[in-house]
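Help needed: design a sequence for this.
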């Protein structure tokens, strides 16, 4: 066992010596000549200012750079001089012990191209293409158009494909390699869930700091079309999300998902719901999520075969220097229990991040899989430019 750990530490040392501060910065930061830390702490985790920036269609009202747009001579034509592009690259050196010990060079683990910007003064777009994820070309995941401040109200409409769970906690913005397991738990043959889907999302914010979000979804993920149709049945699935800020440090929320999926033999009705909470007292942030799910025919059998699945995660983020910290720590606990066989999962993760630059972080992470009695130790980097 000593030999693999020694190899991992030596390889990490090599990464520390060879990696240099990236001189480039992502597309939005380039546009406004700002540091990544204006919106992220650390990237990709968003600060409140970053959330507000995204909610404004990835723009700063009345602060658009004078030469960002071309002079077309037509007030109805808004044309960016250049298409904003950014890249994210992630690599790992991995050691696992599950009976036998194994080491693995996982580079690249993720490589993606991102783009986002203005279409008109009130319409924006965002998309990214996963060129590589775990050795596979995935294609488009997030890809949507956003209509901002409809009817002069704080009302936004997203149309395209996005993660159903984005209004809860954004998986793409987490700091750990370990996922929020309950969000990507698939039950049987059902394609309904909390990860990617196609549809519409309507968001509205009240002066009372109450957010109301409604999603209308195909309910079957983002697979290929069948005879020109993405939705494989006539049904639509629905999500209602409510969240409330309580003072400066607490946010509480609840959501409900309801839908059904037709197959040739039967129909599976799915219900997903649960509360969540975020408590922030610098330098600590605590995120809690509980999810309950029921499927009455997850394998699309003729007879009802109702299965219950529940899960939760607790995430504690430590930022010793606030949003200008060079070090960040994360503790993550995952738990999934299901009446459907093979879905039980429990894990504990400890994660440490060092900011080599505002757009590059070195990561060390340990996960104990309590379900299998397995250990995973990894060291890597995440860079955006």
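Sure. Designed sequence:
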């Amino acid at each position: 066992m000593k030999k693999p750990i020694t190899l991992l530490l030596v390889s990490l040392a090599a990464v520390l010596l060879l990696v240099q501060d990236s001189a480039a910065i992502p597309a939005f930061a380039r546009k406004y000549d700002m540091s990544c830390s204006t919106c992220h702490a650390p990237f990709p985790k968003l600060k409140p200012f970053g959330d507000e920036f995204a909610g404004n269609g990835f723009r700063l009202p009345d602060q658009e750079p004078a030469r960002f747009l071309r002079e077309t001579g037509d007030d109805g034509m808004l044309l960016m001089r250049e298409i904003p592009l950014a890249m994210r690259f992630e690599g790992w050196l991995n050691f696992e012990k599950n009976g036998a010990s194994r080491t693995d060079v996982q580079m690249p683990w993720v490589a993606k191209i991102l783009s986002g910007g203005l279409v008109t003064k009130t319409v924006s777009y965002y998309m990214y293409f996963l060129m590589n994820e775990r050795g596979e070309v995935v294609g488009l995941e997030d890809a949507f158009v956003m209509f901002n401040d409809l009817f002069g109200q704080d009302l936004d409409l997203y149309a395209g494909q996005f993660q159903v769970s984005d209004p809860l906690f954004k998986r793409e913005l987490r700091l750990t390699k370990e996922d929020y397991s309950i969000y990507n738990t698939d039950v049987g043959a059902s394609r309904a869930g909390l990860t990617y889907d196609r549809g519409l999302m309507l968001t509205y914010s009240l002066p009372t700091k109450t957010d109301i979000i409604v999603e209308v979804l195909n309910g079957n993920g983002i697979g290929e079309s069948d005879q020109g149709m993405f939705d494989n049945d006539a049904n639509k699935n629905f999500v209602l999300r409510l969240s409330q800020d309580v003072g400066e440090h607490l946010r509480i929320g609840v959501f409900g998902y309801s839908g059904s999926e037709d197959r040739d033999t039967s129909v599976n009705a799915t219900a997903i719901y649960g509360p969540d909470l975020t408590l922030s007292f610098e330098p600590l942030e605590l995120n809690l999520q509980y999810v309950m799910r029921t499927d009455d025919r997850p394998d699309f059998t003729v007879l009802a075969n109702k299965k219950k699945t529940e899960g939760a995660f607790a995430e504690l983020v430590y930022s010793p220097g606030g949003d200008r910290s060079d070090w960040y720590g994360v503790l993550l606990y995952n738990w999934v229990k299901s009446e459907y066989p093979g879905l039980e999962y429990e894990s504990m993760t400890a994660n440490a991040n060092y900011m080599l630059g505002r757009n590059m972080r070195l990561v060390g992470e340990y996960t104990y899989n309590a379900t299998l009695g397995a250990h995973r130790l990894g060291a890597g980097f995440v860079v955006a430019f």
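The mean pLDDT is 87.
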